[in-house]
Design brief:
Largest sheet: 7 strands, antiparallel
Helix content: 10-25%
Order of helices and strands: HEEEEEEEEEEEEEEH
Oligomer: single chain
Strand content: 25-35%
Length: 249
């Protein structure tokens, strides 16, 4: 269970910073990622029920209430232990309990397919003004380590008086963090840090594993030189620390 929680944390960080590591420069404890896109006529491959694909994207045929699309079973560009979908769509204003666009994913290790998993928009993973919607992260079973095959289903619904939904693009990010630090290695890193100092009348400060400390083995969760976020920052004394824990499937 500890390793599963650790994997989820590193996967979330790798999504936010969207890095890729070249195999030729493989650092210790590398976390790998790769992605694929579906756009426009890419949706012509697969099974469509009252759905039609064209350059604008995946939409519904006329005079139907609902439609669906099931992609072919396809191979991810890398073995992965998590995937994160993003999509761009034209949707009607939605005040109804039904949503006009929904997704389901399933993954496989060899010929053993998982159940279909509903994927919803994850607002914790988005910023105001984002042009694409980021969905929930899907993590494969810990005992499987990695999967390689994927299939996606899309459901469209025509709501009364609204614009017909249209899926314009679907991006799927695949992440393999199996080479990342183990729980035991991270505990050892924390234990190697100096003991937190406690000033009189205050709570002790928690141990923190910083990014970029050359004295800590396996330190740093981004190995790309572009991961430098210090320019233009203003520093102020910290008075509170908030831990926000989001749980997904």
């Amino acid at each position: 269970m500890q390793r599963s929680v650790l994997i989820r944390g590193f996967l979330f960080l790798s999504l936010l910073i969207s890095f890729q590591v070249a195999a030729a420069d493989e650092p210790p404890n590398a976390i790998f990622s790769d992605l694929i896109w579906f756009r426009g006529e890419d949706f012509t491959e697969g099974d469509a029920d009252n759905a039609v694909a064209g350059p604008p994207g995946l939409s519904m045929v006329e005079n139907v209430v609902s439609a669906s699309y099931t992609s072919p079973e396809f191979e991810a560009p890398i073995p992965f232990n998590a995937l994160v979908p993003q999509w761009q769509a034209t949707l009607p204003p939605n005040d109804a309990p039904e949503h006009p666009l929904e997704f389901e994913f399933r993954t496989a290790k060899g010929d053993e397919w998982s159940e279909w998993i509903p994927i919803h928009a994850s607002h914790d993973n988005m910023l105001p003004g984002d042009t694409m919607v980021t969905g929930d992260m899907l993590v494969v079973p810990a005992e499987d380590m990695t999967h390689r095959n994927v299939q996606v289903r899309v459901f469209l619904m025509r709501l009364p008086g609204g614009t017909d939904p249209r899926l314009e693009a679907l991006r799927i990010d695949f992440i393999d963090s199996t080479a990342g630090p183990t729980t035991e290695e991270l505990i050892a890193q924390v234990q190697a840090l100096p003991a937190p100092q406690q000033e009189e009348g205050t709570f002790p400060k928690p141990a923190v594993i910083p990014r970029g400390d050359p004295d800590i083995p396996h330190d740093g969760w981004c190995f790309d030189p572009a991961c430098e976020y210090t320019d233009g920052l203003d520093y102020h004394p910290v008075s509170h620390l908030i831990l926000h824990h989001t749980v997904t499937s």
